[in-house]
Amino acid sequence: MILLTPEQPAEASNRPAAVMLFGAGLVGSAISTTMQKSATLAATTLPLDWHRADLFPEQLALIETRFRDVMAQATESSGSERAVQIVWSAGQAGFFSTDDQVARELELYEEVLHFIERMACRYPTASFTMVLISSAGGLFEGQKGVGAGCVPMPTRPYSRLKLQQEQLLLNSTAPLSKKVYRLTSVYGYIRSRQRRGLIPTLVANGMCQRPSQITGYATTMRDYVWVDDVAEYISRTLLEEDFSPEDVVAILGSGKPSSILEIQQIVEKTICRPLYLHFSPDVANGTTMSFDAGALPKNWRPSELSTNVRKIAVDAMSRQTVFTDV
């Protein structure tokens, strides 16, 4: 877990007392980086082992103790309790996870949610906001032209997990502002120990002249969203002075579906090399999904896919670790 607090006590009055980020993967780490840059926040990593059921409660209790200390310091420096923001972007489960795997993940989520609810009740004069990173692809798998009024139809254990997480948060009676962001297929830079997904994998394998195994068809279409767009939007939402305390459920995506063939051509043009793809047709993972641009937030501005592919390639070349990370 990453705890963000103001670096300068003198500037703390216009900063949140604390930002708690549960999950430091692709999305969580991007949000952490963006919020540190935007609000002069210092990051502290606190242990919370998702694989050790015996350690988890004790570690969460230590986080609670640390949080109380932060709140006491914030009250002392400003004379009042200030905003507290929580972002849940954690989770090991994926599209092919089993019922048993997602059940354990749901238990951990509930433990963290109960902790947040206790803290929100303990500090009633502080404004608490919880952001849940959910999955548009999971909730609307196989649907086309998904609009604002479309009802989620989960078909996998993972999809049901995301819907249960949303419902638990939205049904909470604690004094929390609740914001659920359903992300389409997220892509970002090539980093070790982070999920890559299709686009970074094609860039990495193409630069290393390695073949890529594709489950699906060249015509399979998905909506892809750039991780930095997500991080900047969520950070801006939490830090702006005109922040709305109203509950939100929104889709964050590009609003433009792209086929695997289109992405292949963009990557090949960017790295000036052909890609070697091996397709394994799979009806279950080959269906097209698309989202209506009208369903996206009005102040959401997704960036161009081709521009972001260039960013990934340039970053990979400058770091050179792409040749050891793949």
Global shape? globular
The helix-and-strand class reads alpha/beta
Strand order within the widest beta sheet: 3-1-2-4-5-6-10
- In helices, the fraction of residues equals 40-55%
Provide the residue-averaged pLDDT: 91
Query: How far is the first residue's CA from the last residue's CA?
Result: 26 Å
Note poorly predicted spans. none
If helices are DSSP runs of H or I spanning 4 or more residues, what is the number of helices?
10
Can you summarize the main beta sheet?
7 strands, mixed
How do the SSEs run, as a string of H and E?
EEHEHEHEHHEEHEEHEEHEHH
Task: Please provide the count of β strands.
Answer: 12
List the helices and strands and how they pair.
Layout: E1 2-6, E2 18-22, H1 26-39, E3 41-45, H2 56-78, E4 84-88, H3 99-122, E5 128-135, H4 136-139, H5 157-170, E6 176-183, E7 185-187, H6 198-207, E8 212-215, E9 221-226, H7 227-239, E10 248-252, E11 257-259, H8 260-271, E12 277-280, H9 305-319, H10 322-325
Parallel strand pairs: 2-4, 4-5, 5-6, 6-10, 7-9, 8-12
Antiparallel strand pairs: 1-2, 1-3, 9-11
Q: What can you tell me about this protein's structure?
A:
The protein is of the alpha/beta class and 326 residues long. It is 41% helix and 19% strand. The protein contains ten helices and twelve strands. It has helices at 26-39, 56-78, 99-122, 136-139, 157-170, 198-207, 227-239, 260-271, 305-319, 322-325; strands at 2-6, 18-22, 41-45, 84-88, 128-135, 176-183, 185-187, 212-215, 221-226, 248-252, 257-259, 277-280. It has a seven-stranded mixed β-sheet, sandwiched between helices. A three-stranded mixed β-sheet has the order 7-9-11. It has a two-stranded parallel ribbon with strand order 8-12. Strand 4, helix 3 (99-122) and strand 5 form a beta-alpha-beta unit. Helix 2 (56-78) packs parallel to helix 3 (99-122), helix 6 (198-207) crosses helix 9 and helix 8 packs across helix 9 (305-319). The longest helix has 24 residues, at 99-122. The chain starts with a strand and ends with a helix.
